[in-house]
Amino acid sequence: MVIRPAVPADLPALRPVFEAAKGIMRADGNLDQWSAPGFPPEELLLRDIARGGGYVILNDGPSVILNDGSSVILSEAKESVVAYFALLPSPEPTYSYIDGAWLTDAPYGVIHRMASYPDVHGIFSAVIDYASSRYAHLRIDTHRDNRIMQHLIGKHGFTCCGIIRLADGTERLAYER
Q1: What is the pLDDT of residue 1?
Q2: Taking the C-alpha atoms of 10, 31, 38 and 169 in order, what is their torsion angle to the nearest 10 degrees?
Q3: How many domains does the chain have?
């Protein structure tokens, strides 16, 4: 996998990635997260990119390894976008109040909007490795119904610190490592 900063020209390739991620969530019973049509809006992704915090993950070449060990050709001519994430510097406004307690008050990196195709594996580990190489402390949050993300977050050594609220008042489980 190759991680590189996202550019505005990547936007057409990102919508199918987010729709695939929503499909994973819906199949696992997470019906509410990212439920607004067109979420995340292009304006939000362009803001990530402008801040230098939007990233794409590309396959290693023309193929991607699937669950069964086989590979599928994505493109004969170039690498293809298989995932997106935002890695932004602190402070994160929605993290200013937590019903609980953060592990530290030190500067941190925030991981948001992680999405990938369901048959591409190792994305979460790649993102955490990348983010850890840039920040000593990381924070991430997820929807209470996102059991897949909660499992991955715990598997990678994060501690659940409490509940934060988004700008619209919805709750998220908040983690730090």
Answers
A1: 87
A2: -100
A3: 1
